[in-house]
Amino acid sequence: MGLGVLATTASAARSPHIDYDLTLDDTFILNEYARRSFRFFVEQSNDSTGLILDRAGADGTVPKNSVSSIAATGFGLTAFCIGAERGWISAEEARVRTLKLLRFLRKEAPQVHGFFLHFMNPETGEPRFNSEFSSIDTAILLGGVLIAGQYFANDPEIPVLAKQIYDRVDFAWMLDNKTLQLRHGFRPGEGFIRYRWDRYSEASILYILAMGSATHPIPGRSWYSWSRPRVRYNGWSFISGGPLFTHQFSHAWIDFRQIRDAQGMDFFQNSVYATYAHRSFCLSLKHRFSDFGPNLWGVTASDSPGGYLAWGGPPIEGPINGTIVPCASAGSLMLAPEICLPVLREMLSKYGDTVYGRYGFADAFNPQWQGGGLWVDPDVVGIDIGISLLSIDNLQNGHTWEWFMRTPYAQRGIRKARFTQAPAIQAPDWSQRLARVGNKTRLSPIE
Q: Around Cβ 369, how many Cβ atoms within 10 Å?
């Protein structure tokens, strides 16, 4: 099968095959939200290294003892390209920022077999929080690295650095040869982390890039080495491995529309189902949290009044307490805009600037925290802003999908996993997806 068969075409890149028409009001909301999200990656990048902070104050303040996240940095590299394309930053400034960061990653940042630290000192790259050299966070970084190489293809240095950074990653070293599953990471002096990416998760991009490597590839069979736990909830059936972000992160870069693997799995449609099921799950909690409703829902890994939690459902994970996480719906805009866009409108209409600030929405808020009124997270988190920005970009024009899917590395990995083009399908009638019953919304599975 030639490279062009699975490549994202220009026409397909302009909008998801779900064929959702955005109104002028939708476009205004999305453009402004995306612009504010982009601002985070410009303002919270280190002047010396270019590394992006893991989190910052929602008002733009930099926390004491700040920490950089290699995953947030991957989102940031993608954000620079989006910003240049949309005119929020000059192409030259985006190029300079990208070049500084890639030079640091290639020549100075600590790495083991090409894998980078999960958390780093933004000034030096030294480890923070006893950080591991992380496989998934490196993969998310590489999503941005490869897009930078694609977007700045005519630059004499950026594509070379991008290729060197990617080619250096020894994916085969991170592989457990017995199970053909990739490990979570490595700590010097301790060895490999005992956990593996052994079930459906956000690690799809890790496996695709590992299979696509020309220097240290893993076998195509690894794509089928992890389990696919099936969740059935309120008429929805889908495979899942955790909170909603597991259905979003890889989709930010990999265009899974209209391709299926050798087991016939349609990962794009699967994540659409997961988004609908999550909405239905949140609606089922309305008797406990009266603010939850058809247009106000969403819980995924985020800050909470009690600290950072990996929570969500179905099935229920974590102590759900009525906190709403904006990136749950925003990160799924590229998957199910007809149910996610109303959440943005509702949050803006009901809470306005209380939850919407310099970088878009606060990471999380709780309308009735312990009966004391509205709690709003004072921070924003880089990866949550990143998934929101990339999801908006893919919904509106598919640029991120198009840039990533043009790379030979993504194409090689997809071919190696034996994906094939799915038959063209007629766009569903969204009006049939939502059946109104009194004041309640009943969801029907997509046929």
A: 16
Q: How many domains in the chain? A: 1
Q: How many other β-carbons are positioned within 10 Å of the β-carbon of residue 227?
A: 12
Q: Is residue 440 part of a domain?
A: no
Q: What is the pLDDT of residue 90?
A: 98
In a domain, 185, yes or no: yes
**CB 402, CB 151: distance < 8 Å:** no
Q: Specify whether the CB–CB gap between 392 and 341 falls below 8 A.
A: no
**Contact in structure between 231 and 314 (CB atoms under 8 Å):** yes
C-beta of residue 220 within 8 angstroms of C-beta of residue 416: yes
Compute the C-alpha angle 214/220/221, nearest 5°: 150
- Domain assignment present for residue 299? The answer is yes
Q: Which two tokens stand for residue 396?
A: 């509106």
Query: Rounded to an integer, what distance in angstroms lies between the CA atom of residue 6 and that of residue 255?
Result: 10
Domain of 233: which CATH number?
A: 1.50.10.140
Look up residue 169 and give its two tokens.
């990653």
β partners of residue 175: 182
Query: What is the b/e burial string over 379-409, where b = at least 16 CB atoms within 10 angstroms of the residue's CB?
Result: bbbbbbbbbbbbbbbbbbbbbbbbbbbbbeb
3-class secondary structure, 69: strand
Percent share of the chain, pLDDT over 70: 90
Using alpha carbons only, what angle is made at residue 103 by residues 158 and 80, rounded to the nearest 5 degrees?
A: 60
Cβ neighbourhood burial of 22 (10 Å; 0-12, 13-18, 19+): middle
pLDDT tens per residue, range 51-95: 999 999 999 999 999 999 999 999 999 999 999 999 999 999 999
Task: Produce one character per residue of 414-433: b if its CB has 16 or more CB atoms within 10 Å, e if not.
Answer: bbbbebeebeeeeeeeeeeb
Q: What is the pLDDT of residues 283-340, one digit of tens each?
A: 999 999 999 999 999 999 999 999 999 999 999 998 999 999 999 999 999 999 999 9
Q: State the residue range of the domain holding 347.
A: 3-424
For the cut 60, the answer to whether the pLDDT of residue 445 exceeds it is no
Task: Please state the pTM of the whole predicted model.
Answer: 0.92
- Residue 46 CA to residue 42 CA, distance in Å, equals 9
Name which of 16-30, 262-276, 291-305 the model is least confident about.
16-30
In a domain, 442, yes or no: no
